[in-house]
Amino acid sequence: MAVRFWEMYEETKEQFKLRIAAGKAGMDTVVSWVHMLEDETIVSRFHGEELAITTGMKAGNPDWLLKVVQGMAKDDCAGIIINTGMYLKEIPGDVILWCDEHNFPLLEMPWEISITELIQDYCMRIIDQKQFEKKISKAFREAIQGYWKEADVRQVLGERFDMEGIFQAYCIYVKKTMEDEFNYNQAVIRLENQFGLWKGNDKINASYGIIRMEDFLVLILNNSKEKVFAELPNLILQSFSYFTKEHRFFLGIGPRASHIENLSASYKKARTAMKMSIGTGKEIIRFDEMGFFKILFSVEDMDILESYANEVLGALEAYDKAHKSDYVETLRSYIKNDRSLIRVAEDTYTHRNTVNYRIQNIKKITGCDLKNPEELFPYQVAFYIRDMAKKTIYINES
């Protein structure tokens, strides 16, 4: 989707007489903008993905260029083009060696080529691509809401995607603060760059789209291989490693769906899986592996679930409140330990006779014998709902 350095190079290398001096392995990186660079202090203002062009005016300082490329690489910039011939006759060997070792793209362009024309050309390509990406994002928003039949949606998506092919949705939620915005944007950049690397290594031949919703990301794949289906979750985890280390990353994966008309179903199921990921604290949840929880987490109106939990646990919770007892947690342990009084006693640090006394009282209060899984199931569901309510996060889908 984004403009990649390698694509721009291939399309303009003859026009601008470009030559790759080092870092060829890193050429699949995304380029967000192009800057003229003659003062190293400007690097501190870069945010990642920038491509720089320099004449090497300050190359009289032997360490200047090396420090520039090191600083740019540290900030996840796309690469640098050296306009050789005037201030810098040739690129220093230590700079070439460092860029090769760190896969940082270093290109050479002869002095007679206009820097202004190259910057103008590249920036126009980036602007055009960003406008196209906005159209793609808008069309996908319509498609995942079920409006795939709209003529403008089909026209825009049909330019890049196989409308009758296989689609799959991934929903990514990150608990972030205002201070995390830079790291979040960098994670999205890394994810897009990973797609470029995979394409370069023939690991992925799928078209993809990344949609930024208000509170989460939606990644859509079109015609991905089974191998990608297996490996992509780990690639996403690597891209968002800053947040996974602090357990603030959650991923829901929808099933593969044939034809654009079924993309909406894959998206809704991915969103449901993401909700379970948030609710359980588990990083990755696939909808197809959710079992009974498919039903529970698909309910949009939390009031319905809360009403059910109150209906099932209300009498016991009221008794606990009135008598300062702990029967609700005793019942939870009783279910968790498969009705074993011994294990409940160990779990709650309570004498077995006391546990037995409490269970008998619970049976009287609830009016249920609690003898088999069928009788315990409503209480198990109610406990799931109570746990969900504690971790429920409002997610804006606009």
From TrEMBL:
Name under which the protein is recorded: PucR C-terminal helix-turn-helix domain-containing protein
- Which intervals hold domain Purine catabolism PurC-like? 16-125
In terms of Pfam families, this protein maps to: HTH_30, PucR
- Its domain of life? Bacteria
List, for all copies, the residue spans of the domain called PucR C-terminal helix-turn-helix. Answer: 327-384
